[in-house]
Amino acid sequence: MLESLARSGDYIHLESEDEYSAYFQHLNRVFAFLSAWYQKLVEGGNAEAKIVNGFLEKLLWTVRALRFKHLYSNEHQLALDLNDSGFPHWCGISELEADLALQSQRLERLPSKRIVQEMMLEKMLRKGQDPIEFLPQMAEIQFTDELDGSKLVFPFTPGNLVKVENGSEEKGIINCLFSWLCYDKFSNRPYIYVMAFDFCGTEEELQFDFEQGDFLPAIRRLGDRVVPLAVLATDIDETLPRIFPKILKRIGLGPIICPRFSVKDGHPELVDWLCQFGEPGDFALLLESGVIFSQGQFEESRGWFSSTKKVRQIFAISEDELTGESQASQTQRVVLLPHHVLQQISTLPEFAEKFGTYSKVTYNQQGGLYVV
To answer: Could you tell me if 171 and 273 lie in one domain?
Structure first.
């Protein structure tokens, strides 16, 4: 099976440390541009942008951690999905949970960073040699020492529960925001979810449900994969009796398209345009967001012989999305690409056919970002 995935580009190991080093630098550059774009939105007071930017910071820290773990390791090579993703394979992300669980045991068996640094300096200053043999150990120490569950991305990464100020004045209802990141095991891409919901109860009950109750386990179980938004919102509404989802948004990051780190079959047009009109290191990034919202609610009986009723939400689905993959109220697609490449391809019929409905965000080599 792995051979089949490798042939398709879904599970690839790079050939050398230099290739991995270039790949990690490439990911850092992608996230830097994406973070800069969302930072502009944050300056405008956009709550969603602040949430997304927080997860982007976690992704950057995760790339840093993966770099330390894999760059000099002879035993472990990070698998990448270079077909329709451009991100590390899900397996590499899932292993971070085990690494975090074993952190204290590893720190006990590893020498201190100071001791390894002194040995490296001794080899450089006294023997005039590069301390290459110490690099894997130093990288492992750095990786293990800096493991921080609050800064990393895992297959399921919860965000913060936020009470919305100036919310509903109706007695017994608390307006809330909750977010999480799902690193999908099928597409090998990160998806960020933002949910606005009403909670029926007191603040103490909300805090207990979040910290010790069913809330997080249910969201983890239902939201750790990518399903149609209508299905996910309905499942949350049905599973958690005190939670009434009002708005659920999903932002999918990727694929990242780059001639050096992409299988051409995934997005041949973009690969060709980047090769023909771009510069070394240029990339394109696709994003897709979908949102579903409640347009009302109704009372549903809990069973034939039960007198209790559950308030259920009526979710709005646009006619265009009824049979689509998102099943959302609204969807939006964005393509981030080099400004000089867009100038060359914007009038091409193939570009209009493929990306005519996308919003365009461009960047230049100096770090400038423009919404076209």
So the answer is: yes
3-state DSSP percent of the chain in helix, strand and coil, to 5? 45, 25, 30
Last residue of a domain, one of 146, 178, 207: 146
Q: Helix H segments across 170-227?
A: 203-211, 215-223
Which runs of consecutive H residues, i.e. helices, occur in the chain? Answer: 2-8, 17-43, 47-70, 90-101, 103-109, 113-126, 135-146, 203-211, 215-223, 229-239, 268-277, 339-345, 349-355
Task: Identify whether 151 is part of a domain.
Answer: no
**Which residue in 194, 269, 209 sits closest to 241, CA to CA?**
209
Range of the domain at 325: 156-371
Residue 190 lies in a domain: yes
320-358 pLDDT, tens digit each: 765 566 788 888 999 999 999 999 999 999 999 999 999
* 77 lies in the same domain as 184: no
- CA distances 318 to 88, 197, 230, 295, Å, are 34, 21, 11, 12
Question: Over the stretch 137-163, which tens digit does the pLDDT of each residue have?
Answer: 888 999 998 899 999 999 999 999 999
Say which residue the tokens 């990306």 belong to: 355
Among 24, 25, 61, smallest CA distance to 147 is for 61
Q: Which of 121, 146, 171 is a domain's end point?
A: 146
Which residues fall within 8 angstroms of residue 179, CB to CB, at 6 or more apart? 51, 55, 158, 159, 160, 192, 193, 194, 195
